Amino acid sequence: MGINYISLTCIILGLFTFGSLNAQTGSTCADPFEIQSIPFHQLNASTEGFGDDYSTSPCDANYITGNDYVLALTPATSEYVTIRLENADAGTGLHLLDNCPDANPTCVGADNQSSAGVREIVDVKLEANTTYYIIVSSFAAPQSVDFDLHILA
Question: pTM for this structure?
């Protein structure tokens, strides 16, 4: 009986450890990809492999039904920024929120389009010491999208 209990405990602990070790940074607001400084550039990015954790946004509920890539930005000083997606697949949504989608956020800016190309939120003011969430997602089809991300002051 003691061996079975120990084996079961090891299996359960192993599952929890495996799950936490494989959690991908950027999957949710609880573990966003932290932007440390601006300008910021991330080329050849994708929502592939990130979960579909959020299904609503005050910016547009249609363009957050695919996989979600979550970034967080907390500026030290108030500043105006431009958030630009280039080479975005058709159906890509860009959301800028003042809180996580499941925590009653306000839409600070968005650009959601059915066609491929550029998405852009231009010269939006971000307040000092406030965390903003940038979420790249998509219309349900496609589930995952590719893009290049640029954030400029």
Answer: 0.84
Per-residue pLDDT of the chain (153 residues; tens, 9 = 90+): 555 544 444 333 343 434 444 568 999 999 999 999 999 999 999 999 999 999 999 998 889 999 999 999 999 999 999 999 999 999 999 999 999 999 999 999 999 999 999 999 999 999 999 999 999 999 978 899 999 999 999
Q: How far apart are CA 133 and CA 55, in angstroms?
A: 15
Q: CA of 63: how far to CAs of 23, 55, 58, 71, 95, in Å? A: 23, 9, 11, 16, 9
SS3 6: helix
